[in-house]
Amino acid sequence: MTSTSTDDMRSGEARYRARTEFDEVAWGSHCADCFPSNCRYHVFVKDGKVVREEIAGPRPDRLEPNGKFPDVYPQGCNKGAAWSAQLDAGDRLLRPLRRVGERGSGQWEEISWDVALDAVADGIIDAIEKYGPESIMREGTPEIVGTTAIERLIGMLGATSTDLNASIGDFAPGIHLTMGKSFLWHDEPAAFESELVLIWHSNPVYTYITFYHYFTEARYNGTEIVLLGPDVSPSHMHVDHHVPVRPGSDAALSLAMAQVIVEEGLVDEAFVRNQTDLSLLVRADTGRFLRARDIDPDGRDDQFFHIDQSGAVKEADRGNLLPDGYIPSLDGAAEVTLADGSVVAVRPLMVRMVDHLRAFRPEDVFESTGIAPETVRMLARKVAAKKTKVWMGMAANKAYHSDLYQRTMLLVLALTGNWGSPGRDSTTGPAARWMGGPSRGRRRDRASRVRRRSWRRSTRSTSSSCRSIRRCHRRSPRSTCCAPRGRAVAR
């Protein structure tokens, strides 16, 4: 056996100390492609360079746990700790390059910043003069630090900036169609209040590192966790049940669960009546909601109807659709005389949905989903009996027809009263939610409309403005002169 001398040990210790020495400590975070964490780090600097990072906490602006929830710390991951290695990476681009060969040839030449900025500015001005400012396109990006300045420039020009979530596939179409909002979110500890968590289209052990501990702590608190996914992912070993649903069959599985909930009388009828559009009347001839305009030519297109327990047709409140002094029926029927004198049968949307679900018994979807009927029934009963959260990953946004995945997941939650209260909801957390994308988009859109109007008032003023910008830029190249609806699924 080879012995290690004291000198060797001290030499190794000295080398380690040399690697960890620092001159000062600064605050840092990683504001690109890490949502929603943006974890706080201590950044250690020596000789003006970052030598390492360490997780910092607690945050002074965040309340300490009140005893109800576990605390969030330590909040960070190895990905973040290694982020600063990119600062001195060999492939980091530090100077502008211009292509000199054929596209794809990889042939480039280095140019100065002044030449690069001149070329970009001239290209912008030429595009505005020839095609208008809308022809300038900026693709959305999660790079938060650079976004603010770039968005300001795009807004001033009246140019076009694409939606970040559309660019990277994080837009949740099914949630938008069902709830009228693109995304649903909550404070992360809310998972601790759920009694059942369905992890769907997600592998949070790898993709949600900083907050995954809430799932583990929730299990200690009695929460059941179910993973629905075709693969044995790293999250597999940390759940109570793994349901290996076949790729692309998620909507069929959700509809089968909904069918069980209806068939076994597990529907939260009070919630369905008051918080969904399933109680609104639908015409039998067109399959569309009955509207006041169908009955009276002067009626409103946004006036919908219920049928009460006695069979009488009632106008739904246009403000919130809540019943006032009556209980909407979920299984009745009536006849209504239309504006043209014809008579049409109407019934609640719930009846139509129940008819549709008859084709989705667990036995009927087994071949497509690969999930045993008893497993489907077990899941459906658990969702109906417990405060349930669907942890919906970004994969649910990116598949063809993934809007149907999301809409059917939300249907299961709607039938069981599982949204709108602590521990009962569906979660998806895209980039724009943390960048303030929708609100910034509204401001940008308003600014762009004003800017476009000013550009269109006069061709002369447009040309004059462009010439002025060009002259100003050439005098100083760096001059700054210049985003089941809880109430209306059927249409």
**So what's the oligomer here?**
single chain
CATH superfamily of the largest domain: Dimethylsulfoxide Reductase, domain 2
Helix- and strand-based class? alpha/beta
How would a textbook summarize the main sheet? 5 strands, parallel
The general outline is globular
Proportion of β residues?
5-15%
Unreliable stretches: 430-491
User: Share of helix among residues?
Assistant: 25-40%
Strand element count: 17
Tally of helical segments: 19
CATH topology of the largest domain: Dimethylsulfoxide Reductase, domain 2
Radius of gyration: 29 Å
Strands of the widest sheet, in order across it, are 10-9-8-16-17
What's the CATH C level of the largest domain? Alpha Beta
CATH architecture of the largest domain: 3-Layer(aba) Sandwich
Q: Quick check: average pLDDT? A: 82
Separation, N- and C-terminal Cα atoms = 80 Å
Number of domains in the coordinates? 4
